[in-house]
Structure formats: structure tokens, C-alpha cells
Amino acid sequence: MSMAALFRGYRNFYKRSNKHVELSLVSYRSMASKTPVGFIGLGNMGTPMARNLLKHGYPVIATDVFPESFKDLQDSGAQILDCPAEVADKADRIITMLPSSPNVIEVYTGPNGILKKVKKGTLLIDSSTIDPAVSREMAIAAEKMGAVFMDAPVSGGVGAASLAKLTFMVGGVEEEFNAAQELLTSMGANAVYCGQVGSGQGLIQD
Questions:
Q1: Number of domains, the chain
Q2: How far apart are CA 146 and CA 59, in angstroms?
Q3: Do 153 and 61 fall within a single domain?
Q4: Whole domain around residue 164: which residue ranges?
Q5: What is the pLDDT of residues 22-81, one digit of tens each?
Q6: Are residues 18 and 56 in the same domain?
Q7: CA-CA distance, 1 to 102, in Å (whole number)?
Q8: pLDDT tens column, 142-171
């Protein structure tokens, strides 16, 4: 066999091997994208949002201060844990949907809060409508633990949440927007990047 033939054979083998590696990586990313998602706050908005994640194939690990609020979601297949810290121990992507700034502060920084057990690299997305200054405070606290916090308040009510028609206004590190968008567009029609942390809150409340 000539050297040219040997070279052609090697080149064809390399192309096939390289293609296999690329396909394997794509498959791995697809599988990784369906790893568990934490969800904290199962009220009138949070429950349909979490249910839409389940519909899109994401395993959901959830909690709420009111046990009666999570029965329907549990029946839909979500795993229910006792507190936000336990959710943070099990999931590296967590969404919060809470009534007010004090609730957000408690869920993130309280004695059983997310930041007690958050893992480095965890993506934290807060869809509550709160004071932008609190969003910035939570981002700083999360960064100290090696996690990333983004604010993503919503435009749209309970009906839009049920139909996955919400619009999310997202503030935070731009490089993390794609990772956030993957989850948000499973719960809504649009996810708009607005700028630094707190920018989403600022636009929603203007």
C-alpha cells in the first residue's frame, strides 16, 4: 500500500473519530441539561412554573414553607424537601419565586437558606419581584460562596405562568444568560437580557 493511501485512510478514520467525539459531546450536553432543577416558592405563580419545567423533562426538587402548597406538584412528579438548604445540596440550578424582599433574604441567607449548602458554580435565578438593591445584595452573597445569582422577574400573571407565556427580564452576568435562558424559556415565551444584576427588577418596576 502506498504512503498516499495510508494517509487517506488515516484522514478518513480521524474524521469519523472526530465526528463521533462531537456527537458524544452534544449528547452529553443534552443529558446534562436535564439534571435536577431546584424550585423554591410554590405559590400561585411558582407551582405552574415548576410544573412547566417537569413538562419539559427537567426533574424538579422543590420546597415551600406551606406544606399544603406542594401536594399537586408532588403528584406531578416533583421531589419535595424540607428546606432551601436541602434543595441547594441536591441541585446546581435553582429558581426562586417568592412574595417579597424579606422572603428572598430569608430563603437565601437564613439559617436553612440556600447559601448554607450551595455548591460552587450553582446558578441561582430569582423570579420574585423585589427591591433591585436586594437582588444586588444576594448576588454579592452568592458570589462569596462561588455561586452565580441572576434576577429574572416576570411580566405576566397566573394565566401566563400556566400557559408558559411569561416574559422574563433578566439581570446578571451576561456569560450566564444562555444557561438561564434554557430554563426560563421552558416556563415562558421570552427571556430578555437587561444588563447587570438588578436590571431586570428595575425594568419590571418602572
A1: 2
A2: 24
A3: yes
A4: 35-205
A5: 333 333 323 446 789 999 999 999 999 999 999 999 999 999 999 888 888 999 999 999
A6: no
A7: 76
A8: 999 999 999 999 999 999 999 999 999 999
End-to-end Cα separation, the chain, in angstroms:
75
pTM of the model: 0.83
Residue type, 59: P
With cell 405563580, the residue in question is 45
Residue with cell 419539559: 56
193: cell is 437580557
Residue with cell 441539561: 33
Nearest alpha carbon to residue 168 among 131, 203, 132: 203
For 1, residues 6+ apart whose C-beta sits below 8 A from its C-beta are none
For 99, list phi and psi in degrees, rounded to 5.
-75, -30
Is residue 40 domain-shared with residue 139, that is, in the same domain? yes
